[in-house]
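User: Second chain of the day. Same drill as before.
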Amino acid sequence: MTVYLVRHGSAGARNDTDPHDVERHLDTDGREQANRLVQLLTGRPIGRILSSPAARCQETVAPLAQDRSLDVEVNEALLEGTDIAESWEFVTWAARQQHDIALCSHGDVIPELIRRAQGRGMEVPGKSGCSKGSCWELTWSGTEFTSGKYTPLKKPLS
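Assistant: Same format as last time:
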């Protein structure tokens, strides 16, 4: 199984004093990144798409969901600020499903999940990162993540 761990696209400047930051939407670049995600994952057998409740996350995977005729399911374990143990439990649950799955989360959650997977033996043979509008392809062996491939969605994919 494969888990596609997506960081939401560009959504303008955050405002830590705004209690409604969870409602911040993608900007023009973020919408382009969301469309590039569809291109990146063309032909991949994704059976479910789950997202943080944040609008920018849901909007990032919405074009993919539309392309696959799937709903975007919301899960709090992907929300910014979630305890890493809770997020890790959710991501490993997702990996044990009967189909590949796409998850959209945030820049504080994803690096911690990648570090945890690497600490448990996951190899990352190429570039590593967590830029806005990026995707990690995590391969699950049945008991652990064995490899991770990072792809930023900032420029047209070839």
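The chain has a mean pLDDT of 93.

User: Great, on to the next one.
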